[in-house]
Structure formats: C-alpha cells, structure tokens
Write a structure and sequence with these properties.
Strand order of the largest sheet: 12-11-10-13-14-15
Shape: elongated
Oligomer: single chain
Number of helices: 11
Order of helices and strands: HEEEHEHEHEEEEEHEEHEHEHHEHH
Strand content: 15-25%
Largest sheet: 6 strands, parallel
Distance between the termini: 30 Å
Helix content: 25-40%
Number of strands: 15
C-alpha cells in the first residue's frame, strides 16, 4: 500500500504527461474542526476525476464541478487560487464540514514550473523536502526540509512539507510479525521483514511486504534507517535482535523496539552497554518490552500494542502520556488498580 501523498502525486504526474488539465489542491489552513488536516492533498483533472481528498466528499464534489465547468484557474500559466470553505453555517452544512469548521485550500493549475514530477521523485527517494509555491507566478521551488512541517500561507507564497512514507523494518518472521505487518500495511507503512533462520522456510508472499534473509545488522546498515523509519525486533533470539538493535539505536530511526520480558529487557540493556559500548543515551531510545500496555495476550493483541506505540512515536506523542508494557505489568504486579480478567482468562483491556 502506497501512502496517499505519493498516490496523489503519481496520478497528477500521470494526467499531466497525458496532456490533461490538472489541478493540485492542498489544505493550507483550518479553523475549528475539519475533516482533513493542513497539508492534505488531492489531484483533480478536467473530467472531474480526483485522487486524494481534502474533506469528507462535498468539497471534492464542488471542486470537480468547477473543473468540469472550467471555473477553476484555467490555463497552464494561471495564478494559484486560495479558496475558503465553511465560513458561514449554511456553507458548512452544505459542504459537510463539522460545526464551526473552516478551511482554506490552495488550488494550482499544474504546469512544468509546478515541479510535480520532481516532487514525486523526491518522495520516492525518501527525501524530506519543502515546496515553496509563488502565488503570483505559480512557480514552485523544492529544497530540503523537516519531516512533517506545518504548511505556511502568506499573501505571496505557500510552503508545504513532503516526506517519504513511514517505513517499518521487522526482525523476525513469526506470528506476531505477520499481524504487525498487516496492521502496518493498512496504515500505509512500507515494510521490510528480515529473518535469516532456516526454520523460516517459506518467504512471505504478501503484497507490500519485502522479505529478506540477510543478517539483521547487514540490513540495517544497508537501509540506513532515517527519521521516517521504525525498527522492531521480534525474534526472541538475542543473537539476531541485538544485531539489529546495535545499529538501529545509532541511526535516525524514530522508533526502536524489541519484544521480550522485563527481565530479558534489563539483561539486553546491560549486554548492549557492557559488550557493545552503547551509551545510556542510546539505550534510552530502546522501547522494551515494545508496545503500550493493553493487557495483550495473543500475537495479534501484542502486534496491536506495538503498532499503537509506533504510531504514537511517529506522531510525536510524549512518552509519559502512554503507559508502557513494563509500567503496566509492574503496576498489576503490585496490585495497583488491578483489572479483573474475563472468564477466558484474558484481560479487560
């Protein structure tokens, strides 16, 4: 599964190469509640066909009607427009915006100087770029930028940040890994699974998942985890998990986690410090046992717990907001706010 920004850019470039009139639409600012956050994009052609979304559907319908009726900025050299929806209550109801919701859209007619092919290529190369659109000329300039930066709209220019899709490197090809990868696929992650063990004879054939038998440390060094990469070690074999963690903890990965008991996690930290020279600062980045505490028992529940922690880290949620697996188990071990089990022995949350 490809992330939505890449899908939108790919379709816009495809229509552009086919000689079709194309508009590139970006949510610039929102006030109150809104269906899509700033930075959301969509592509639209003269037939009213769209890729991506900027609302729940009604605004897309209005933009499509304008495109079919040639009521959007026309001509390859047309100036970008800034459209505002939802200012009045009746307009908010008409376009399906939540109560009090207002959004501004930057609508530009794609042209050679829009630089959409170069922007698509940058995303495919896993580069974080900032695109500055001149609202007078429609000319766009790309430069390196921060991942996930907020869009900025002024009277003369609109700046938006684009980055690569989130990537997850999974060490181990067991049951928990399969569930984790399936959840990650629905969230648009690019996934690489690594397991060199002979016991894992059948490579995965699932679409969207790359499988490799190379050693974990070789894989981490080859891929060079960036700020949009998570590394999760799930083999329960310290010889393999540690190989991945040693290099991952020294990379730019936004999340590094490993499965295991609290005791094994303490031993792993000591081992990485004493035998491999990892510093306390590096070890502080290790999430172990990986996941947030939901009382998980089965491989699917453990995968859900881990994926929730990965998404929280990706979205910048503070560590102290969520209860980790270690914290939750320690609390229950001391009888604090113990949660009654269901009849089947599982936990209530």
């Amino acid at each position: 599964m490809t992330d939505i920004d890449t899908l939108v850019l790919r379709k816009a470039v495809e229509w552009q190469h086919a000689g079709m009139p194309v508009w590139f639409v970006t949510v610039a600012r929102t006030w109150g509640s809104s269906p899509r956050p700033p930075g959301s994009v969509m592509a639209l052609n003269a037939r009213g066909e769209a890729e991506g979304s900027v609302s729940g559907g009604c605004i897309e319908d209005d933009l499509a009607r304008r495109a079919r009726e040639n009521a959007l900025n026309a001509g390859p050299g047309a100036r970008p427009e800034v459209l505002r929806y939802g200012v009045l209550a009746d307009e908010a109801r008409r376009f399906g915006l939540p109560c009090g919701g207002t959004m501004e859209l930057v609508v530009e007619r794609a042209a050679p100087h829009s630089g959409l092919p170069a922007l698509l290529q940058a995303c495919l190369q896993r580069r974080c770029v900032e695109r500055r659109l001149d609202l007078q000329s429609g000319r766009a300039v790309l430069r390196d930028g921060p991942p996930g930066g907020a869009p900025r709209l002024t009277a003369s220019a609109f700046t938006a940040c684009f980055g690569p899709r989130a990537r997850m490197i999974v060490i181990g090809a067991g049951d928990t890994s399969r569930y984790l990868c399936r959840i990650a696929l629905t969230l648009g992650f690019e996934i690489v699974v690594c397991d060199p063990r002979d016991a894992q004879q059948a490579p995965w054939q699932e679409e969207g998942i790359a499988f490799t038998r190379e050693m974990p440390d070789d894989l981490i060094l080859r891929l060079g985890p960036d700020r949009r990469t998570a590394v999760v070690a799930l083999t329960h074999d310290p010889k393999l998990d540690d190989l991945a963690l040693i290099d991952a903890l020294q990379s730019d990965a936004f999340y590094v986690g490993a499965i295991g008991s609290r005791r094994n996690t303490r031993l792993r930290r000591a081992r990485l410090r004493e035998h491999f020279g990892l510093t306390d600062a590096m070890l502080a980045r290790l999430r172990g046992p990986a996941g947030i505490f939901i009382g998980s028992k089965t491989p699917a529940e453990i995968a859900l717990s881990i994926m929730a922690e990965v998404v929280a880290a990706k979205n910048g949620v503070r560590d102290d907001v969520l209860e980790t697996v270690a914290e939750g188990k320690a609390r229950l071990a001391h009888g604090e706010d113990a949660v009654p089990a269901l009849e089947d022995g599982s936990c209530r949350y």
